[in-house]
């Protein structure tokens, strides 16, 4: 069955066509992402109004291009079985553009629309990537907007074990990156420089490991004070800047790994899935892979970041499990994974 997935929750317009074969098996027919990163770079972060307009501009172009690709596999719009779209969490205006597009398209094709939770999609995508992954598993999602750990018992059955109390991990990387002089998004640039050293002269306070969450906001203040103090040294000694990047990365990664390790130990689950843009971080992957687990499932980088395939795949899994949600007639900027 052919699913069209549409994702517009933040600053990536993404669309994918996915053939679902059943029991978790699926093939991607075509997929495209149009990133707005450069558009927002001048503002140091995502500007919601601009993001919505960019989605409006991008979606029709993506749709046309998607079917130019799909035609090579003999697939045309009339083959679509279901249109899947993100309804939350995310930026309200952006979600509205995606859902309006999905509804109009589905009405024209006389096909149903399935509503998808963006976090659930990140949580389930490792099943697409790693066929050894089985329920129950622990899922860590780390992106620019979310940092959450879930127990995934089955499709549609989740327990939130931990979440950030303030900034998301990617946000912490980006804010520290900005203080260290990197353009938005600073996370990958900070991480790249951090990888050039293996030790550091600096230390940073660790966030309180709260009972059910992470905390990264204290880190930003500490980095800001250190940057002010060390500004001159960074000019004359570039390695010092790399070392501070190393320490920032270590402080964020350590908190994530400790919490995941605690969740694995308490639950006695030995399967771990990682997703979200920060999953690209090498130190995080290295340290998580060393935990006491049997399977460590991480989708390829394009499927860790926001993409349309995860939306299509989630709608397919939910349809198979008999719990697909129809479009609720509204979007939800804040949207717990258990809401649909
Ligand atoms: O999931 P994603 O592509 O977009 C959303 O936030 O929805 O995640 C983007 C985030 C940004 O904050 C970016 O700085 C961070 O992922 N990121 C990284 C790395 N690559 C991307 N953070 C640390 N290390 C990386 N290698
Ligand atoms: Zn995301």
Describe this protein with a few key phrases.
340 residues; alpha/beta; 6-stranded mixed β-sheet; 11 helices; globular; binds 5'-O-[(R)-(carboxyoxy)(hydroxy)phosphoryl]adenosine; binds zinc ion
Summarize this structure briefly.
This protein is α/β, with parallel strands linked by helices. It is 45% helix and 22% strand.
Give a written overview of the molecule.
The chain is of the alpha/beta class and 340 residues long. Helix content is 45%, strand content 22%. Helix 3 links the parallel strand 4 (80-88) and strand 5. The model has no long low-confidence stretch (mean pLDDT 94). Residues 10, 143-145, 170, 173-174, 185, 187-188, 191, 276-278, 280-281, 305-306 line the site of 5'-O-[(R)-(carboxyoxy)(hydroxy)phosphoryl]adenosine (KG4).
Distance between the termini: 22 Å
Low-pLDDT ranges = none
Q: Give, in spatial order, the strands making up the sheet with the most strands.
A: 3-2-1-4-5-12
Please trace the helix and strand order, writing H or E for each element: EEEHHEHEHEEEHHEHHEHEHHE
Helicity, as a percent range: 40-55%
Derived from helix and strand composition plus strand pairing, the structural class reads alpha/beta
Q: What's the count of strands?
A: 12
Biggest sheet architecture = 6 strands, mixed
Radius of gyration: 20 Å
Count of separate DSSP helical elements: 11
Heterogens: 5'-O-[(R)-(carboxyoxy)(hydroxy)phosphoryl]adenosine, zinc ion
What general outline do the C-alpha atoms trace?
globular
Overall pLDDT: 94
- Name the beta content range: 15-25%
């Amino acid at each position: 069955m052919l699913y069209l997935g549409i994702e517009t929750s933040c600053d990536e317009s993404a669309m994918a066509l996915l053939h679902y074969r059943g029991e978790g098996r699926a093939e991607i027919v075509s997929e495209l992402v149009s990133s707005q990163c450069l558009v927002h770079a001048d503002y140091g972060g995502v500007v919601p109004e601009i993001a919505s307009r960019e989605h409006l501009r991008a979606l029709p172009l993506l749709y046309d291009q998607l079917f130019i690709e799909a035609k090579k596999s003999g697939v045309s719009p009339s083959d679509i079985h279901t249109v899947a779209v993100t309804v939350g969490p995310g930026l309200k205006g952006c979600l509205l553009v995606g859902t309006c597009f999905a509804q109009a398209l589905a009405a024209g094709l006389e096909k149903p629309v399935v509503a998808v939770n963006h976090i659930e999609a990140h949580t389930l995508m490792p099943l697409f990537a790693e066929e050894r992954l089985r329920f129950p598993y622990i899922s860590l999602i780390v992106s620019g907007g979310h940092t959450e750990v879930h127990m995934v018992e089955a499709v549609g059955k989740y327990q939130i074990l931990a979440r950030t109390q303030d900034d998301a991990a990617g946000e912490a990387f980006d804010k520290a990156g900005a203080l260290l002089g990197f353009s938005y998004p600073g996370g990958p640039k900070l991480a790249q420089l951090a990888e050039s050293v293996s030790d550091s002269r600096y230390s940073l306070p660790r966030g309180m490991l709260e009972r059910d969450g992470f905390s990264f906001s204290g880190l930003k203040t500490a980095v800001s004070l250190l940057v002010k103090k060390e500004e001159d040294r960074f000019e004359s000694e570039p390695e010092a800047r790399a070392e501070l990047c190393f320490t920032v990365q270590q402080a964020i990664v350590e908190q994530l790994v400790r919490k995941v390790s605690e969740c694995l130990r308490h639950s006695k689950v030995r399967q771990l899935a990682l997703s979200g843009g920060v999953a690209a971080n090498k130190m995080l992957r290295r340290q998580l892979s060393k935990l006491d687990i049997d399977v460590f499932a991480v989708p390829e980088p394009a499927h860790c970041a926001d993409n349309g395939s995860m939306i299509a795949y989630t709608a397919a899994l939910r349809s198979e499990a008999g719990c697909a949600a129809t479009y609720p007639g509204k979007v939800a900027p804040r949207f717990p994974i258990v809401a649909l």
